[in-house]
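Listing S7. Sequence submitted for prediction.
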Amino acid sequence: MDLGLKGRTAVVVGASKGIGRGIARALAAEGCDLFLLARNAGELGETAAAIAAEFGGAATPVTADVSDPGSVRAAAAAVREAAGGINILATSVGTAIRRQDRTITWDDADWQADIDIKVTGILRVIREFEGMIASDGTGRIVNITGASGLMTWMPALNYGMNNAAVIHATGYLAADLADRGITVNTVVPGIIGTEWREGWAGGMAGDQTKEDWLTEFCGSKGIVARRWGRVEEIGDAVAFLASDRAAYINGTKLVVDGGLTANIR
């Protein structure tokens, strides 16, 4: 489907792998010119080169660490110098669940490290880039959060609180930027088969095939689809929200979780 995004400029944060890479590929397939941000310069360069080769558009890597205000500010300055303005800002940042023990027992440094990347990191990005987002009706911000922000997921206390905070910030920013014609939405994925998760599943399967193990695992977690999502499915959702077809969608939570949060009993 042609979403009418050809020629628009998008910044994708967290683009080197996983969901961020899926978003970048989806926007590139629609003809967007891309600036790809992540902190690992090597992985980011490889991703940018692969996307440019596959889709033929511009995919410019810009190294940035969202936990460092100066790094985010420098990345925004580089994009402003190269492009002047942008149409789309997609943020897919965060960390894997760092520990499996009771989060309430963690020290302050471990709590704060997650908050500084997921919550404060996304706010830093939006603070530095929102001034260059188009105010002609094509301006879009799409944040990636997670189903743990809508439900209790054990043992992910920090993970869930951070996602919930970004969901709240998304609604706030939708109102804050409405006068400029910029929409702000969040895509809320369930369990997604990123590179890390695919490898983890292979190790957990034991004597079963990975596919059989995944069917059982996803079913046990309440996922009605009995599978986990693909990064491409999140990318497609972001591309839709970035398009003119979603112009009347603002401040919403687009849940893409195979039924995980449907709470079916």
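Caption to Listing S7: primary sequence and predicted structure tokens for the chain studied. The chain is about 45% helix and 15% strand. The longest strand covers residues 183-189.
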